[in-house]
Amino acid sequence: MAHFALFGVIRIFSNHSVRSLHSSVRLLAADKDLLVRLRKKTGFSFSNCKKALEKFNNSFKEAEAWLQEQAQKEGWAKASKLQSRKAKQGLIGVHHDGNSAVMVEVNCETDFVARNATFQELVKQTALAAMVHHKEKRENLSAYCKGFLGPSELSQLKCSISGKSLPDQLALTVGKLGENMTLRRAAWVLAPSDCYIGTYVHGALPDAAVTSHATVLFGKYGALVICQQSAENLRTNLQDIGRKLGQHVVGMVPLSVGSLEDEPSGESETRMLAQSFLLDPGITVGQYVQVNNITVLDFVRFECGEEIDSAEAT
Known about the structure:
Elements: H1 2-42, H2 46-55, H3 60-82, E1 89-97, E2 100-108, H4 111-114, H5 117-135, E3 145-149, H6 151-154, H7 166-177, E4 182-190, E5 195-202, H8 207-211, E6 216-219, E7 221-229, H9 235-252, E8 276-277, E9 280-284, H10 285-291, E10 294-303, H11 310-313
Antiparallel strand pairs: 1-2, 1-6, 2-4, 3-4, 5-7, 7-10, 8-9
Helix pairs in contact: 1-2, 2-3, 3-7, 5-7
């Protein structure tokens, strides 16, 4: 009888184990859905996502926050380790919003990483943060104004979407991509209502990459050109005119605007209005803007990796 009783206990325990096993299988199926969601949202590895979910009993929100915290710590450690490596590649990012525009440069080590969507997101966040920063300076403008931000100023800004500081966002990106990166510089421009800011980016990425970021254009060269319109101008033409003038600034590398009275002085000419117009070498830039009733007030040109003077570094 004792043997039969023991056998009954074993059968009961075995049945209970089987039921528990089935319950565990159902739980793992639910966990898998959370795992896929967490992986898709954060971009972290399946093993790290699984560890996070197990640590917080399948709390999606707590697991996500913990992953971001750990990634940031690892990113800062990696950033410190890599900071001595040269970062001369990267992207220029241009963001244009009405009579405001910003242009930023963020560097990395290789062109391969510059084409990565995660790095492009960092450039986008930098441009948007610079836009928020300089728009706070807007008042009742009677004339245009421009300024530059160096690495120390950029490090004080926050991402408008995540709320993280730009250095924290950079550390996360370094942690994911494994290259040294720097927030190098930004230029911002504000213009009054009778002006227009022309923008141009050269060496732009394929359309699929650009359109995914909507409001920020990426390339290796960029220009902002501040134009004043006359009463005869139709605003619908100004975008195209501004883009062409920006293309000229990128291609011909003028050092100053100059004046309409300047006489051209050959291939070494560095005054914009006296230069042969890039898109129509038979005329000067000055002649082009006169025909279109435009006055060029100022411009800014960035080239990724170029040497910069002290005025742009501060």
